[in-house]
Amino acid sequence: MLRLSVLGSGDAFNSGGALHSCYLLEHGAGKLMLECGPSSLAGMKRNRIPSDAPDAILISHLHGDHFGGVPFLLLEYLFSNPRTRPLVIAGPPTTEQRVRSLYAELYREVHCRQVNFEIEWAVLEPGARRRLAGFDVRAFRVPHSAEPVSLGYRIESDDGVVVFSGDSAWTDEFVTETRDADLFLCECCSMKPETPVHTSFEEILAHRAELGCRRLVLTHLGADVRSAEGLEVERAFDGMVIELDRRHSPRG
């Protein structure tokens, strides 16, 4: 079975009090943290998930609300819950440099201390494939404003296929990538189009029939999306758990 725990469903402004972007994908072969916003450690502890649970962390783009929690995890592993298992941190080019720079600015006194576990930094470009925590991950480019590139991911295992939009304006890549997917976790920052770098509910609804996923869940929710009533599409919330097992579920 594939289990997705929503540790943070909020946007950069924590609209509605939701925590920043963070999700934990678990199956028998490992645990993959998808995004690591500044409040990720709080999300794990609220949901009684051990802080050293992830075998790998996968970052979609280098905006603070998506990777700013990595230094706090490293600090946790140094002092509060010492880690010995290796950790893979994967993301766009310069992820390692940006994390190290942020860590140094936040905790200058400790950032140079040697951790007691191996960190492997994996660089992902559009089209790259990588096995992470037992999942087969493929990156694809999405239109967003982060440098050097913003990525979405198709994440596959025997138990199910999850597609994650990252932060992105609407793109027809979503139609291609969600083909035969069990779950599409798609950002939705506003009810109507407000910016060329994010997707709105109006756009998602207009393209819903084109998507090939069995289940669509909106996340990274703006305030108006979070408070809207009677939406036809499921919305993520902090603490939400989704379980998938395609081997025992009929295909629709």
Protein described:
The chain is 20% helix and 28% strand. It is α/β, with parallel strands linked by helices and 252 residues long. The strands form two sheets. It has a seven-stranded mixed sheet with strand order 6-5-4-3-2-1-14. Helix 1 (40-46) links the parallel strand 3 and strand 4 (56-58). The protein starts with a strand and ends in an 8-residue tail after the last strand. The relative contact order is 0.17. The mean pLDDT is 95.
List keywords for this structure.
globular, Metallo-beta-lactamase, Chain A, 7-stranded mixed sheet, 14 strands, 252 residues, alpha/beta
Mean pLDDT: 95
Shape: globular
State the separation between the terminal residues, measured CA to CA. Answer: 18 Å
CATH topology value: Metallo-beta-lactamase, Chain A
> If you compute it from the alpha carbons, what radius of gyration comes out, rounded to the nearest whole angstrom?
17 Å
Percent helix among the residues? 10-25%
Order of helices and strands: EEEHEHHEHEEEEEHEHEHEE
The secondary structure category is alpha/beta
Per CATH, the superfamily is: Ribonuclease Z/Hydroxyacylglutathione hydrolase-like
CATH secondary-structure class = Alpha Beta
CATH architecture: 4-Layer Sandwich
**Order of strands across the main sheet:** 6-5-4-3-2-1-14
Number of strands: 14
* Number of individual domains: 1
Count, helices: 7
For the largest beta-sheet, the strand count, sense and barrel status come to: 7 strands, mixed
DSSP strand content: 25-35%
